Amino acid sequence: SSYTVLNSGELLIHGVLEKDSHRTFHCQTRHRLTGEMVWPAPQMSSR
Predict the structure, then answer these.
(1) Are 10 and 4 in contact, with CB atoms under 8 Å apart?
(2) Which domain of life is it from (predicted)?
(3) Residue 39 half-sphere exposure toward CB, CA atoms < 13 A
(4) CB 28 within 8 A of CB 41
């Protein structure tokens, strides 16, 4: 898989290249019970 969700809820994305280092990523989330989509989820940045 290209990502891992940690116990803390953080999303760890694998295979990020050097050229991606200054990009910002957004994550789309879906509520498990209602199916409601939340966009955008809190903003993330590459480290």
Answers:
(1) no
(2) Eukaryota
(3) 4
(4) yes
Q: Which residues are bridge partners to 44 per DSSP?
A: 25
Q: How many residues does the chain have?
A: 47
- Predicted local distance difference test score (pLDDT) of residue 41: 54
37 vs 4, 14, 19, 32, CA distance in Å? 20, 24, 30, 10
Mean pLDDT on 40-44: 57
* pLDDT for 2 beyond 60: yes
Residues 6+ apart with CB under 8 A from 47: none
Q: Under 8 Å CB-to-CB from 16, ≥6 apart: which residues?
A: 46
- How far is the C-alpha of 37 from the C-alpha of 24, rounded, in Å? 20
